[in-house]
């Protein structure tokens, strides 16, 4: 599904990532961990083609992302749902419209899609908040809305960047349950997280691989996690 082969990345100074190789198989569940600034967000961006590697190769759905034209990049991104660390909503649009934005942008018929939107808002427990504006939402509501927006195009792969940042334990468990449900539906899931308690909770429920960025490269974390 996604494969990084000997990937290196630099923002212009020294190398941030070096010789990173990993394969996310269809239907797998992964965590990505490592200290703040180690390059977790950067690695996710390399996976969805927002950044092109300085060295090595990223293959997404059997295509080399650095060789794709604009249309192919757009097609590839439709298959990947991203939950951004900062959620990024349009503050003047009601929540339902924010969640539906990927559909609107891609020109899908909203009449036909409305029941999907309703089901999705119900699934994340936000049906009652459809008309709320993003600044009125709690942290947990924002994170669930960001997850709903990431999956509205029915992606095959979900990349979630600290999806439980700034929420309490109960809410982080609720978000984890949603991500586990998506995985049970056959979606591949990669979660960047500092939250070791969350990773341990997930590992008791799903066969998850934990990858850690250390010394600029990616290592499989040991059984201590
Ligand atoms: N656009 C950019 N230009 C230059 N440097 C950047 C850019 N984006 C990130 N960096 C730097 O790259 C390093 C890795 O950033 P990144 O956000 O990938 O780390 P992270 O592991 O996700 O951190 P955190 O856990 O704090 O979110 C940091 O030192 C950051 O300042």
The unique ligands bound to this protein are:
adenosine-5'-triphosphate
* Proportion of residues in β-strands: 15-25%
| Name of the CATH homologous superfamily of the largest domain | P-loop containing nucleotide triphosphate hydrolases
What is the CA-atom radius of gyration, in angstroms? 17 Å
Number of domains: 2
Span of the ends, CA to CA: 25 Å
Question: What order do the SSEs take from the amino end to the carboxyl end, as H and E?
Answer: EEEHEEHEHHHEHEHEE
Helix content: 25-40%
Largest sheet: 6 strands, mixed
- Apparent shape: globular
Provide an overview of this structure:
The protein is of the alpha/beta class. It folds into two domains: 1-79 and 155-225, P-loop containing nucleotide triphosphate hydrolases (Rossmann fold, 3-Layer(aba) Sandwich); 91-154, no CATH class. It is 35% helix and 24% strand. The chain has helices at 40-47, 70-78, 95-105, 110-123, 139-151, 169-184, 196-203; strands spanning 2-9, 17-24, 29-33, 55-60, 63-64, 80-83, 157-161, 188-192, 208-214, 217-220. The strands form two sheets. It has a six-stranded mixed beta sheet with strand order 6-7-8-3-9-10, with helices on both faces. It has a four-stranded antiparallel beta sheet with strand order 2-1-4-5, with helices on one face. A hairpin with a 7-residue loop joins strand 1 (2-9) and strand 2 (17-24). The longest helix has 16 residues, at 169-184. It is globular and about 45 Å long. The chain binds adenosine-5'-triphosphate (ATP). Adenosine-5'-triphosphate binds at residues 11, 16, 34, 36-42.
